Amino acid sequence: xxxxxxxxxxxxxxxxxxxxxxxxxxxxxxxxxxxxxxxxxxxxxxxxxxxxxxxxxxxxxxxxxxxxxxxxxxxxxxxxxxxxxxxxxxxxxxxxxxxxxxxxxxxxxxxxxxxxxxxxxxxxxxxxxxxxxxxxxxxxxxxxxxxxxxxxxxxxxxxxxxxxxxxxxxxxxxxxxxxxxxxxxxxxxxxxxxxxxxxxxxxxxxxxxxxxxxxxxxxxxxxxxxxxxxxxxxxxxxxxxxxxxxxxxxxxxxxxxxxxxxxxxxxxxxxxxxxxxxxxxxxxxxxxxxxxxxxxxxxxxxxxxxxxxxxxxxxxxxxxxxxxxxxxxxxxxxxxxxxxxxxxxxxxxxxxxxxxxxxxxxxxxxxxxxxxxxxxxxxxxxxxxxxxxxxxxxxxxxxxxxxxxxxxxxxxxxxxxxxxxxxxxxxxxxxxxxxxxxxxxxxxxxxxxxxxxxxxxxxxxxxxxxxxxxxxxxxxxxxxxxxxxxxxxxxxxxxxxxxxxxxxxxxx
Amino acid sequence: xxxxxxxxxxxxxxxxxxxxxxxxxxxxxxxxxxxxxxxxxxxxxxxxxxxxxxxxxxxxxxxxxxxxxxxxxxxxxxxxxxxxxxxxxxxxxxxxxxxxxxxxxxxxxxxxxxxxxxxxxxxxxxxxxxxxxxxxxxxxxxxxxxxxxxxxxxxxxxxxxxxxxxxxxxxxxxxxxxxxxxxxxxxxxxxxxxxxxxxxxxxxxxxxxxxxxxxxxxxxxxxxxxxxxxxxxxxxxxxxxxxxxxxxxxxxxxxxxxxxxxxxxxxxxxxxxxxxxxxxxxxxxxxxxxxxxxxxxxxxxxxxxxxxxxxxxxxxxxxxxxxxxxxxxxxx
Lengths: 508, 332
Description:
heterodimer, A: alpha/beta, Rossmann fold, 3 domains, 6-stranded mixed sheet, disordered N terminus, B: 332 residues, mainly alpha
């Protein structure tokens, strides 16, 4: 169905000279953005460049400090999600706005529930209506009666996208819609966006994966440091990266040096639990051991278990040849073991966001640098400053709250914490998810530096390529909680890894 | 296209989903059934006969104030709030009823009932405005209004006294047959309708995730204020039932209900984190706590230790509930 366009000359939506400040951070700094009806518009930039903030302003969730927003030439009321929705705007936010304790069907149809007698919700019609919606959009394998909190992240993302698309938005924003989606799901989304374009609607999306932007976007707008630095119909990856970062960035994956001595630091034997079965492997000193496979095959349970936060029924974990008893993260962090987890969801599992960078860095090691429970200020200051320098964490002051840092810098703060704790075994769990190219490169370099110091890294990433290509010495492929293959690296064949992840029967 | 591989497999049936998602609610009914059986057994053991009409009537009547207070508390809980002022509002309602209704005719009694419910709504409105518009912490706001309401109640009725017309008692909590069960049925009906209204859905949505609810176009401020207004009305109604059962006024009689309404809501499977729970469970929870008092009586336990055993029971129930939820969650 086509969308009528009353004012064809005016852009579908435009933000003019928008500024928004959080504390002392200028998230968006006089940036402008415009997209047309009938186009898919890519919005790219590094983390912290202001894309998400701009999207939130344009969809009425944030009220800007200054600037105007026009929809089809008409000025839109600022800071009102209702006004934005009335103008035909829908938004798939990066932080999904689903109700965890409601079912898929309730979420899908929230505030558009089937109504019966006296405008009361007709609960019985919810699930069939949801099934219809899924059938129409080509979504399979999501049970409308399941609670959203029981869904995998990718499924939640699909529900969120579907929920917005069925409202027939004229303008649809998608902030990092693919960050939790795997190959076929991404294809599904592409199909959906192509359809929106054909129907004459306007879709605006952000992504850190250049291939997606290139494949989908009719035009691309680049953001840097809170400003727009150009809109292009034709632009290649290196040009875009130069625009995004203001410098040339090498996008290749670095190669770890070959392993010299094969001294094992971490040995896992017969790990079993609700989502793990009989998993064994060895991590050597100075090694990056990649972990791959489809999402949700027990990788996160593996990482949590090694960190002492898992739910194990059987198995042994040896550090430096010694059997260990890791019952909680406190045990794992301790000197002697020195196991640290750098999780994907920095916000809920790692950092204390409202606290300062200094406090976050010092948290696990405070006891070591304190006299009678009081932290020695001078020592602390020196250690913190050294770490910030070493990891090049970009900040104004060590007293700055972590939630005012950009995503990449939050990530580095977390790594810095574990370095201060002198952790020898680092568990990198999907740390590059939703991270821009330049920061990714920083993380790769950091990983290489860490192993050159004799530390070991267990590395999982939802991007198969990242694990396979060069970065890992070896790759473990997991499937249904088991080890389905162990591939020698570096430069593991991506196809082989995917095949192993799907299981032998699928291998062509 | 297809969903993620992890989502593959057989789908559960509707009933299987319902039971997995409503473990706390089912557990509340289970606990209620267990408590009733326990009560009947103890009763039989000490009196040699089964409880009859009189026992059913008196148990129902004595449970009514807590039932109403708990339903109000539940609505506030679901919207991720807490209402400590329940006891204070019940004091106001109870005292006012005792002072104003004595010797009044039908019209005056009905009129004052309406006025008292309206006062409950105003009290809730104050709570709601301070919490949702003033952005103050619910626990601080309602702790303060609890004291304020208690002060007002003392002002209305400095000494226990006043009188509730017998006709009013007969209407709300008839002592000769369990007519109060009609009000329980009305509450259940109210709830089944309420959670199908957009206001009800909005309350659940805010309890799930306030930011997400806002992004979905839910009027969060209005809804949160509304939840406290409902809480206030139900607290005032609870005070009326308390007045009817005690047939007189006492400006401090409502105090214990603040904490017992919270306990009953927990027992009924509603969480303080919002978005999960049901007034149906709360009604069961309120009955459990009320019947427990009779159970303790027949078990020969000194009334002085009542609260000790109530507390023990609450902890046990919550622990069992959590264990069952975990077990079911793992299997699912």
